[in-house]
Design goal:
By secondary structure, the protein is α+β, with helices and mostly antiparallel strands. It is built from six helices and 17 strands. Helix 3 packs across helix 4. The longest helix is centred in the last third of the chain and has 18 residues.
Length: about 350
């Protein structure tokens, strides 16, 4: 399966517990805070405005002139030569849609009705594997990845990697409760029953290692983020899992079961395996303003000083965790801004 070391961005300093999904106590994880936010605050004069929500961008003559935001003390406006949106693939298109004007009646960059469309997630299966002999669990857990199934016989699937989390009683309980809460069926005393089941399951899974797939999603025009001021969040999602994605998920499962048969693979997820933590594609970039929201430099078409630097720009979701791609692209966008800042 041609395994390689997962790119985790962890220095593994003394006391490191691989705080996957948790705050880092030893400051050895290369997160957005340690590598971006803290240095910006400490060394480059950046500021955080607390209790503040950006409501819209004001633009005239092809330029953003102000960022309007609501604070506890009322509305404020922030101005600058360059504006960079990095609110995520759900909130960035909402902010563009809310930024209407006579020049942009449907929102900034939305003359082709693409802002918020082509929403993609990943499909992710959790798979328990059993080692063929007793091995110590001390040390890094999120270590192995394989792209043996990234593209097979002309079809795109995705990657396969160790999850980095032990199969504990708490993890099993949280997983089962999340499945129950998504279901329309209400089970009496569900929490108590689930707690008992998870205690028993934890003993069974004590030696298991959990791996996860990251299966590529493709952009469909009908899958989108929809602006809805009547909802507390301000939006809702329209998403239908395509038949071809379901078929690729089934084929990926078949290939993994065959390749890993010696480790008795047990797929822990069901049909509802969309990874809601990986949204992307809602402001896709390209070289044609009729089929994209952003140009190749991630500038909003028709708004010369407005950039997008989050997962919104993805033209396809790829078959890997999007974090490093987002970070790499943000550095590319920063270089582009730096080279043009004198004339913007």
């Amino acid at each position: 399966m041609k395994p390689y070391r997962v790119h985790v961005g962890i220095a593994y300093r003394p006391g490191c517990t691989e705080c996957i999904g948790l705050p880092c106590r030893t400051d050895c994880k290369a997160g957005g805070a340690s590598k971006g936010l803290c240095p910006a605050l400490r060394d480059h004069g950046a500021k955080i405005v607390l209790n503040c929500e950006v409501e819209r961008l004001e633009a005239t003559d092809g330029r953003v002139t102000a960022v309007a935001a609501r604070t506890a003390d009322g509305m404020i406006k922030v101005r600058g030569r360059v504006v960079v949106l990095a609110a995520g693939a759900l909130s960035t298109p909402l902010l563009l849609r809310k930024s209407t004007s006579p020049q942009w009646p449907d929102g900034l960059g939305n003359r082709n009705d693409l802002v918020g469309r082509c929403l993609m997630f990943h499909a992710s299966d959790l798979i328990a594997l059993w080692p063929r002999k007793n091995l110590s669990s001390v040390g890094p857990r999120k270590t192995l990845s394989s792209r043996a199934f990234y593209a097979v016989k002309g079809h795109k699937f995705g990657s396969f990697q160790s999850l980095g989390l032990p199969v504990s009683h708490g993890a099993i309980f949280d997983f089962l409760m999340s499945r129950i809460e998504r279901s329309s069926v209400r089970v009496p005393l569900a929490r108590h029953a689930t707690r008992a089941v998870s205690l028993i399951a934890a003993r069974y899974f004590k030696r298991a290692c959990v791996f996860a797939t990251i299966i590529e999603d493709f952009p469909y025009h009908s899958n989108r983020v929809v602006l809805d001021p009547s909802r507390p969040s301000g939006f809702y999602i329209e998403y239908v899992k395509s038949r071809e994605l379901s078929d690729r998920i089934a084929k990926m499962r078949t290939m993994l079961k065959s390749a890993l048969a010696v480790h008795k693979p047990w797929i822990l997820t069901g049909d509802d395996n969309l990874n809601m933590g990986h949204p992307s594609g809602t402001c896709r970039f390209g070289d044609d303003p009729t089929t994209s929201v952003l140009n190749p430099n991630n500038t909003v078409w028709g708004v010369e000083n407005l950039y997008v630097a989050d997962a919104s720009f993805f033209p396809s979701s790829s078959g890997a965790n999007p974090a490093l791609t987002v970070a790499a692209n943000a550095l590319r966008v920063a270089d582009s801004i730096a080279s043009q800042v004198g004339r913007i």
